Amino acid sequence: MAGAGKTTAWVALHLLLAGGAWVPAAAADPELAPPLVRAPGASLPAGDGLLVHPLPFRLASVWNSTYPAGDDEDGLLWAGRGLSQLASGGVAFRWGALSAALQPEVAWSENRAFELRPTGRPGDLAFANPYYGNGLDLPQRFGARSFAAASLGQSFVRLDLWNVAIGLSTENLRFGPGTRNAVLLSGAGPGFPHVFLGTSRPVDFGIGEVEALLLWGRLDRTRHVQNGTHPLLTGLVVTWAPRWLDGLTVGLARTHVQVWSDLRFVDWLPMFQSFFKKDLEDSFPEGDNPRDNQLASVFARWAFPSVGFEVHAEWGRDDHDRTFWVTTREPDHTQFYTLGLTKLLPAGRRTVRLLAELTHLQEQRPLGNQRGVPVVYTHGNDLGYTNGGQLLGAWIGPGADSQTVAVDVFHEGGRVGAFLERVRRNDSYYWEVIEPTSEMAAHDVELRLGVRQALTVRRVELAWEASVAYRQNRDFLRHETNARLSLGVTVPLGR
């Protein structure tokens, strides 16, 4: 019976996330085995005629005492110093094979002042990222005063025919197995308008089930980057669950950022091109597109329901190599990786979850190397990996690594838990600029300890988190302590 209890707990908790758009926030912990691919389109029950379903009203508030501190699911909200808030709501529809949702978002940030690292640039560029120049639109601060933003948020329109889904969406997407950090696409920044084409449900090819998703999207730049454009983002993700290995799913994900103004026809389908620049030069009369950047990864998640255990991993690289042998010689060039595990333990009518994950986005090579010291997410030609000044990928940012351990207790009314996290940021800048002139190790490192809870009170779902962080050499300026409080309120408006 003990084994059955573990299996039941594992399956029940996974079903909370598999249920689609109407999963209660109190139960559907975003760090609980998220889908390997968060594809566009909500899950609405099938039925005859027109189905209209009001979406929950959601209000999220974040307060930081000393400096900005975001998270992996902030979306449109930018959590600067002071109070920041986001509100969303709307309605979803289904009529046969056609489904849609209108779920706009509005965000506001108090954006109180804090010490910035000087950029030596005038006007709006004084708030720009101080480490990567025009290679990354990731401002230190969004101007000198409070500001508001609005978007269509988690809206979409989708048509499902013959197991093919096609549509238009502004939703946040998520690729890969990371629970704390999704490296290629995440909810750390605002969603972007995109067209998508993929499978409606897994396709059984005899050797296992396969799912696939293609997308083409348009990114925005802020006024805090010089001569910003609206780059094209293309993406492909494919997952495969082998028939003979229960619980295992493997996948491949690939995204490209390209300058929109000079695209050729072949540049609209880079996900099907070679991974190596030499092949592209030989295949196309005009050669490789010099104004593009690629991120690609392979990933896997293996779940063992009978013992309530799961392990996941992802490894990838930023940018193309010229040939296969260049990759063979330096597979760690521009590499990134994530490793994590989850263990569920039955405790009477409760379930205890232990979680651990590390993510590494740093380049490690001797200074002065001919290939330079590239940094994941950064690139010239306005090809940095952001939208609206916030990251498309892992919230910890370029040149960073993190380690997270957490314990949560799930019960009938929700969950309660605690976590400890270490993050080191902008380490390439440290090795190039700070370390040669410093007499001691002066990395930008943050330790954060927090508690959190989610519960349902008369159908209203509440989720709060409180943490305190000590950050040594924040932006290589000074040691600082930051308190972070967040509160989420979700009010269901339908049954």
How are the SSEs placed, and which strands pair?
Elements: H1 2-18, E1 37-38, E2 50-64, E3 82-95, E4 98-102, E5 105-109, E6 147-151, E7 156-161, E8 164-169, E9 174-175, E10 194-199, E11 203-204, E12 208-218, E13 232-242, E14 248-258, H2 277-283, E15 292-304, E16 309-318, H3 324-329, E17 335-347, E18 350-360, E19 386-387, E20 390-391, E21 401-411, E22 414-425, H4 427-434, E23 444-457, E24 460-474, E25 478-491
Contiguous uncertain segments of 5+ residues: 1-28
Task: Please give the largest β-sheet.
Answer: 18 strands, antiparallel, barrel
Number of strands: 25
Based on CA atoms alone, the radius of gyration comes out at: 22 Å
User: What would the average pLDDT be, to the nearest integer?
Assistant: 84
C-alpha geometry: globular
Percent of residues in helical segments? under 10%
Beginning-to-end CA distance, first to last residue: 35 Å
Structural class from helices and strands? mainly beta
Question: In percent, how much strand structure appears in the residues?
Answer: 35-45%
